[in-house]
Amino acid sequence: MDSKIQYQYSPDNLIKSEPNKYDLDNLKSDELVINLGPQHPSTHGVLRLEVLTDNEIIKEVIPHLGYLHRCFEKHAESLPYNQIIPYVDRMDYVAAMNSEHAYAMGVERMLGIEDQIPKRVEYIRVLVAELNRLASHFVAIGTYAMDIGAFTPFFWMMRDREHIQRLLEWASGARMLYNYIWVGGLFYDLPVGFEDRCTEFINYLKPKLKELETVVTDNKIFIDRTANVGVLQLGLAINYGITGPMLRASGLKFDLRKVDGYSVYPELDFDIPIGEGKMGTVGDCWDRTYVRVLEVHESVKIIEQCLEKLKKVHKRDKEFDPQALVPKKIRPKAQDLYVRAENPKGELGFFFRADGKSDIPFRCKARSCCFVNLSVINELAKGGMIADLVAILGSIDIVLGEVDR
Amino acid sequence: MSFDEIKSIITNQFGDIIISEDEKATPKAIEIAAESLFKTMTCLYEHDQLYFDMLSCITGLDNGPEAGSMEVIYNLYSIPFDHHLMVKVNLDRKEPQIDSVSSIWKTADWLEREVFDMYGIAFNNHPDLRRILLPNDWEGYPLRKDYKHQDLYHGITVAHEDSLKKEEKGEA
Question: Are B104 and B42 within 8 A, CB to CB?
Answer without folding.
Answer: yes
